[in-house]
């Protein structure tokens, strides 16, 4: 067992989960290998073309694993689209949330409560939200399954000066003091 998941998951289980959560019968190219890597608790880097199924590479393991996966995403509109998409496959709207500056205090409290209660499997955040001290304290006390950095090319494009918080993702992991696997995904 690693990160609450058996490292001996068989092909049948993954395909069964794919069908159960998303209604698909088969994986696209390399998705299954990437998902196995995440489930085995390995840091993983993914380059897939647009439309290649990158989102499923972190969404499916997040739904299968114990805890909440944190997805670092560069744009609020992209976060909302992803949350709406995941909720569209689930009977539980609390399965996915975003946590960013667009939420008021009541909404933020609800998101954090759902994470503590274990109903949220995917939490989409901007790098600025991820590195706020109050959020770091919160993340240190909840079960995080893994971190997914979506649109990972933003680290080199924006991270050096425009969005320096991208450079702080590793130190955030060190701060909360857990061995959390990271999956970074990009199309470029």
Outline of the structure:
This protein is 44% helix and 15% strand. It has 188 residues and is α/β, with parallel strands linked by helices.
Structure explained in plain terms:
The chain is an alpha/beta fold and 188 residues long. It has one domain (11-186): Rossmann fold (3-Layer(aba) Sandwich), CATH 3.40.50.300. Helices cover 44% and strands 15% of the residues. The chain has nine helices and six strands; from the N terminus they run ααβαβαβαβααβααβ. The chain has a six-stranded parallel sheet, sandwiched between helices. α2 runs parallel beside α3. It is globular, with a radius of gyration of 15 Å. It starts with 10 loop residues before the first helix and ends with a strand.
What's the CATH class, please?
A: Alpha Beta
Q: Could you say how many structural domains there are in total?
A: 1
Q: What structural class results from the helix and strand content? A: alpha/beta
CATH superfamily: P-loop containing nucleotide triphosphate hydrolases
How much of the polypeptide forms β-strand, as a percent range? Answer: 5-15%
**What's the architecture in CATH terms?**
3-Layer(aba) Sandwich
**Strands, count:** 6
Short key terms for the protein model shown above:
44% helix, Rossmann fold, globular, disordered N terminus, alpha/beta, 188 residues, 9 helices
Secondary-structure topology with pairs:
Layout: H1 11-22, H2 31-39, E1 44-47, H3 54-64, E2 68-72, H4 76-88, E3 96-99, H5 105-116, E4 122-125, H6 127-130, H7 133-139, E5 144-149, H8 153-158, H9 169-176, E6 182-186
Parallel strand pairs: 1-6, 2-4, 2-5, 3-4, 5-6
Helix pairs in contact: 2-3
């Amino acid at each position: 067992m690693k990160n609450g998941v058996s490292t001996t998951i068989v092909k049948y289980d993954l395909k069964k989960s794919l069908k159960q959560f998303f209604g698909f019968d088969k994986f696209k190219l390399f998705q299954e290998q990437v998902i196995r890597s995440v489930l085995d608790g390995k840091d993983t880097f993914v380059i897939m073309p647009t439309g290649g199924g990158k989102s499923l590479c972190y969404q499916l393991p997040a739904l299968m694993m114990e805890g909440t996966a944190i997805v670092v995403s560069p744009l609020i509109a992209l976060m909302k689209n992803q949350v709406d998409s995941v909720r569209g496959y689930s009977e539980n709207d609390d399965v996915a949330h975003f946590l960013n500056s667009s939420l008021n205090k009541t909404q933020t409290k609800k998101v954090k409560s759902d994470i503590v209660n274990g109903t949220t499997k995917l939490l989409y955040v901007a790098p600025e939200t991820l590195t706020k001290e109050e959020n770091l304290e919160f993340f240190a006390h909840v079960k995080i399954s893994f971190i997914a950095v979506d649109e990972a090319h933003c680290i080199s494009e924006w991270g050096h000066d425009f969005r320096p918080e991208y450079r702080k993702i590793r130190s955030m992991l060190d701060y909360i003091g857990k061995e959390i696997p990271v999956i970074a995904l990009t199309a470029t």
